[in-house]
Amino acid sequence: MRSIYVVTHPEATHHVERVVGGWYDSQLTPAGVRAAVSIAAALRARVPDDAEVEVVSSDLRRARRTADEVAGAFGVKPIEERRLRERSYGEAEGRSQEWLDQRFVPPPASGDRMGHDVGVRGAETTRTFARRVYAAMEEILLRRCEHQVIVTHGGTLTFVVACWIGMPVESLGRVDFRAPSGSITTLREDDYFRNHQLASLGDTRHLDG
Known about the structure:
Blueprint: E1 2-8, H1 13-17, H2 30-46, E2 53-57, H3 61-74, E3 79-80, H4 97-103, H5 126-142, E4 147-152, H6 154-164, E5 184-189, E6 196-203
Parallel strand pairs: 1-4, 2-3, 2-4
Antiparallel strand pairs: 1-5, 5-6
Helix pairs in contact: 2-3, 5-6
């Protein structure tokens, strides 16, 4: 049974400061660091002691700090993967969320929803965002490691899961898998049929304590 644990980084400074994240390199808050410790402990408890584990992370500080805690629990070093970053919001990054809200253009009800770029200069289209995450995932999945941890962002999670279950990129215009910050989503492949399962989405029980 192959298992992949997709972690959405916990609370970061851009959350509490109400500024746009994206590629803006915010870091974990003290509460976020405590949550990262809880995430690491929860994953350590799920994986057998003798299992091979790989930790792959977005290179942004808020994800990498989370990955450092997880990787430390398994005695490995995290692998940085730039393509697992959140969507780029172009010139909106680091500005107030209110600034973006005033300029945000929602995707069309029909037509080319994959070409949606939120209406802000320099922002990624949904298609570009999805394709880079798929490219990262395709490389990650080639490595036949029994237990893999992917540390990423809330927006990126949708495309990580969609790639796992085999959705074509051009079908993603209306897809949205929601998971809270600091959550763990579990993906599994069974040994017999090789089916790809979404075993759990956005589990936060480890944060209750």
